[in-house]
Amino acid sequence: MHVFYTYLFLTDFKQDWFLAILRFILILFVIFHSLRHVRDTRATIGWIGFTLIMPITGFILYSMFGVNRVMRRAQKMFNNRPWHSQLLSNMTQYSVKGHFYPLAKVVEGFTQRPLLMGNQVDILNNGDQAYPIMLQAINSAKECVFLSSYILKSDATGKIFADSLIEAQKRGATVRVLIDGIGSGYFYCPIANYLKKNGIIVDRFMHSFLPWKMPFINLRTHKKILVVDGKVGFLGGLNIANENVLLKKPKHPVSDTHFQVTGGIVHELTEAFLQDWFFVTSEDLNKKKFYPTPEIKGDMVCRIITAGPDSDLEKIKYTMMQAISLARKSIRIMTPYFLPDDRFLSLLCLAAVRGVNVEIIIPKQSNQQLVDWARNINNIMPLQLGCKIWLVNPPFNHSKLMVVDRVWSFVGSSNVDMRSLRLNFEINMEVYDKEFAESIDDFMGSHRDKLLTLDALQQRPAIAKFRDATTRLLLPYL
């Protein structure tokens, strides 16, 4: 019996020492790795503090959500690849003059994409107007159809798109479809299965059930891209689902704004899709046949800007912030979710203080209750410093639009929240065209229903303020 107790004591002693050494090693790893690779100081302090308190749990969570494997993967795949060679040899580039010159120069510097002349951008409202035009383009495809969507539902609308893609491939067109691994269903994606059964090559963006690939569960492609034959393209906020066809009176209608583009800018849109496709599948489709000689379709000057937690980190956010800093008269932003970080908010407030008319247009009630609670806290500072926040009545408006001085426009898939501006893979387009900017600006202005006041926020019950403040802690993941 004495020998038995001695064995148990030695075993426990060895286990305690092993666990102590293990905890020490894990803590050191998180400290050194986060200090070297995590850019946000507060995030670094948070990870280190959490791991000091709970070493094993902290290490596991840090390994899953704190390590940017996506950036390493992107840099490894894209290094020394001449993605822009097709563009620069064929396009007429444009040089901006006037007070937006610094914006154009800065964006060209960090995107390495030129401003292109000779484009036409047409506004499409809701699925009622956009879907028939998109389907007409797919049905006329001869060379290629590239589609990327956050949501592609297996409803009547999704099936119509799927069948058109299938027919395009039967005609000999190269068809590729990229669907987000979360937005269209994590555990089961019927539309992807339907397309695959009919011979369409489909992939789900960074989707895996494998535990060691779970870090990617928080990273989503929020892009909406359709390119046909390298000649016509579509981008904006519109997903593909019945809920976007308002004439059908869906149970939860979603109003949205999409854009058809023609001219040389379609080359940049094509390239953006093919980069994503290569990133996810390693299939290199950056071929000359997908970049036909561009035709001059209008006089708009445009540039595509992509962003994500890879080599494009926060480029959409930087573009918006630079535009805000250059504003002289007006800034108008329409977004379904308004939850930017403090730097973004501070720039908006500084613009308002120096006399710029700053208007934020958001839904009275979005489709995400947690977002609505969290934004109440964020809205206080801009209201205190002179920004105007307008509420839009139903149906829920999902448009993502920005206009500065009624001259410069910024449209695409990115919401003005921390998820879109840092974690999601997004695509936007800047447009230097006064007439187009005035159209977008007036469109946003027509949706202003009720002005949110500081008193309304401050007079909320104490329990609501506590709820909102607590929800705000989830900002990076909402």
Blueprint of the fold:
Elements: H1 2-37, H2 41-53, H3 55-66, H4 69-78, H5 85-90, H6 101-111, E1 116-125, H7 126-139, E2 144-149, H8 156-170, E3 174-180, H9 190-197, E4 201-205, E5 225-228, E6 232-236, E7 254-255, E8 257-262, H10 265-281, E9 300-307, H11 315-326, E10 330-334, E11 338-339, H12 342-353, E12 357-363, H13 369-378, H14 380-384, E13 388-392, E14 396-397, E15 401-404, E16 408-412, E17 416-417, H15 418-423, E18 426-432, H16 434-445, E19 450-452, H17 454-458, H18 462-472
Parallel strand pairs: 2-3, 3-4, 7-14, 10-12, 11-17, 12-13
Antiparallel strand pairs: 1-8, 1-9, 2-5, 5-6, 6-8, 9-18, 10-15, 13-19, 15-16, 16-18
Describe what you observe in this structure.
It is a multi-pass membrane protein. This is Cardiolipin synthase. Could be a virulence factor. It is found in: Cell membrane; Secreted. The strands form three sheets. This protein has a 15-stranded mixed sheet, with helices on both faces. A two-stranded parallel ribbon has the order 7-14. It has helices at 2-37, 41-53, 55-66, 69-78, 85-90, 101-111, 126-139, 156-170, 190-197, 265-281, 315-326, 342-353, 369-378, 380-384, 418-423, 434-445, 454-458, 462-472; strands at 116-125, 144-149, 174-180, 201-205, 225-228, 232-236, 254-255, 257-262, 300-307, 330-334, 338-339, 357-363, 388-392, 396-397, 401-404, 408-412, 416-417, 426-432, 450-452. With 478 residues, the chain is of the alpha/beta class. It contains 18 helices and 19 strands. The chain is globular and about 65 Å long. The chain starts with a helix and ends in a 6-residue tail after the last helix. The protein folds into three domains: 2-67, no CATH class; 74-98 and 114-303, Endonuclease, Chain A, CATH 3.30.870; 315-477, Endonuclease Chain A (Endonuclease, Chain A).
